[in-house]
Amino acid sequence: MKNTKLGLGALALAITGFFAFSNFQAGTIKGTVTPPEGAKEVWAVSATDTLKAPITNGTFEIANAKAGTYKVLVDATDPYKDAVKDGVQVADGQPTDVGEIKLEK
User: Fold this and answer.
1) What is the pLDDT of residues 47-86, one digit of tens each?
2) With 0-12 CB in 10 A as exposed, 13-18 as middle and 19+ as buried, what is 10?
């Protein structure tokens, strides 16, 4: 009886461990910034995650974004103002294109 309980406990532990490491497929957030010289980096902020990426030739791609709703912030350089895009929805394993973000002076 004791061996049966020990075996069942080991089996339950193995099954729990197997499902604890689910396959995470991150999404991406991409877009463009106009004018391209107006900013150097972009941030994506959610309730549980903060990510950043460089802006190269006016384009950016933020990798490893978990599914959820993000606020995308463009950190502009002078004389341009920072820009914010709210409500960006990211799905597991899917790219999200926020389109063109125009910076104002």
Assistant:
1) 999 999 999 999 999 999 999 999 999 999 999 999 999 9
2) exposed
pTM above 0.85, yes or no: no
CATH architecture of the domain formed by 25-102: Sandwich (2.60)
| 60-73: burial string, b at 16+ Cβ within 10 Å, e else | bebeebeebebebb
Check if the beta carbon of residue 71 is closer than 8 Å to that of residue 91: no
Place of tokens 């010289």: 37
Residue-level pLDDT at 13: 59
Question: Which residue ranges make up each domain of the chain?
Answer: 25-102
